[in-house]
Design a protein that fits this description.
There is one protein chain. The chain is α/β, with parallel strands linked by helices. It folds into two domains: 4-242, no CATH class; 255-310, no CATH class. Helices cover 41% and strands 15% of the residues. It is built from nine helices and six strands. It has helices at 4-10, 44-52, 56-67, 119-136, 204-214, 228-237, 244-276, 280-293, 298-310; strands spanning 73-77, 95-101, 106-113, 146-153, 165-171, 178-189. The chain has a six-stranded mixed beta sheet with strand order 1-2-3-4-6-5, with helices on both faces. β2 and β3 form a beta hairpin. α2 (44-52) packs across α3. The radius of gyration is 21 Å and the shape is globular. The two termini are 19 Å apart. The relative contact order is 0.15. The model is unreliable at 1-32 (pLDDT under 50).
Length: 311
């Protein structure tokens, strides 16, 4: 999972794997192999990690402090977490909280695991909902607090880049003049951290992205990750700290994700194989046709075909 630049530094802590799924299983194998730690950027487990555990808000505070260093976060508030049932079928992966700076400034953070299709458009839509929510809670006029939308991407839009954080706001096109600071976007491309994670050059944010991306493949917390945030993060992700019901649900989620991954891989390969005899363009057409049969969205099919054409 890591490249040669950093592989030797943490290979001893990795469970060998060819991709984001641990092992390959036929349909008659009921349970996926699970390691020591959970894949916490998957569905409900992201919310469990950052909202529902005893130390979750402290972990979230440390996490947001690294992403938004211009604020000295002293308090985080969230509503109705006592009503969240981690075992239900709601796969909402949003963490929506109010933060307070040491000078009393209040701002809103919405953290999401970003899907691959339409993720920028989804970010704009969801950030607008966060703004509207402030009006519903009785904010005067339009003096609402700054909204930070933070998207965690377990894929890279800037391949080959060692930069993990990409930041956007609203500016005048030619002059670059800032229109308003009240809406900020931060996208973390987790795979980009692999180029320098666990090295002296790595920032804490680099190592956080590495941990989120590689967690399920690790057998122990790397010695380089000694700060409090990593102790809390790894403790929350350790499967022995899950309740029996949580472990059973996690195992089911892993099986479902594995099955989807295998369906996509099979459809892609079957379409390409069928089309090879008929020419390159026909191969891509049949690949797309097979992907549609397993229910993959059209924009995702277009992305996958483009990637295949580059190979």
């Amino acid at each position: 999972m890591c490249n040669e630049a950093c592989g030797e530094r943490f290979r001893a802590g990795l469970i060998p794997s060819a991709g984001p799924f641990i092992g390959f299983f036929m349909d008659n194998t009921p349970k996926p192999v699970m390691g020591r730690y959970a894949r916490i950027i998957m569905d409900r487990w992201f919310k469990r990690t950052f909202l529902l555990q005893k130390d979750s808000l402290r972990l979230l505070q440390l996490f947001l402090q690294e992403i938004i260093p211009e604020h000295d976060i002293v308090e985080i508030r969230t509503d109705n977490i006592e009503h969240i049932n981690i075992l239900d079928d709601n796969k909402d992966v949003r963490v929506d909280v109010e933060c307070y700076d040491s000078d009393g400034t209040r701002f809103v953070c919405e953290v999401q695991v970003a899907p691959q299709h339409h993720f920028y458009e989804r970010a704009v839509y969801n950030s607008s909902l966060a703004i509207q929510k402030q009006k519903l809670t009785g904010e005067m006029d339009y003096d609402f607090p700054t909204v930070y939308f933070i998207g965690l991407m377990d894929f890279s839009m800037h391949r080959g880049s060692a930069q993990v954080d990409f930041r956007y706001n609203l500016r005048e096109k030619r002059s670059g003049e800032l229109m308003t600071p009240r809406l900020q976007y931060v996208f973390l491309e987790l795979p980009n951290a692999l180029s320098r994670a666990l090295t002296p050059e790595a920032s804490i944010l680099d190592n956080i992205c590495f941990a989120l991306h590689e967690m399920e493949h690790l057998t122990e917390r790397p010695a380089e990750l000694k700060q409090e945030i990593f102790r809390l993060l790894f403790n929350s992700a350790e499967l022995t700290n899950f309740t029996p019901d949580e472990r059973a649900k996690y195992q089911l989620d892993m099986t479902t994700e594995r099955d989807i991954h295998n369906q996509i891989a099979y459809a892609r390969d079957e379409g390409m194989e069928e089309g090879r005899e008929k020419g390159r363009e026909e191969a891509f057409r049949l690949m797309a046709e097979q992907l549609r049969k397993v229910g993959i969205l059209e924009e995702e099919i277009e992305r996958m075909v483009k990637e295949a054409k580059k190979e």
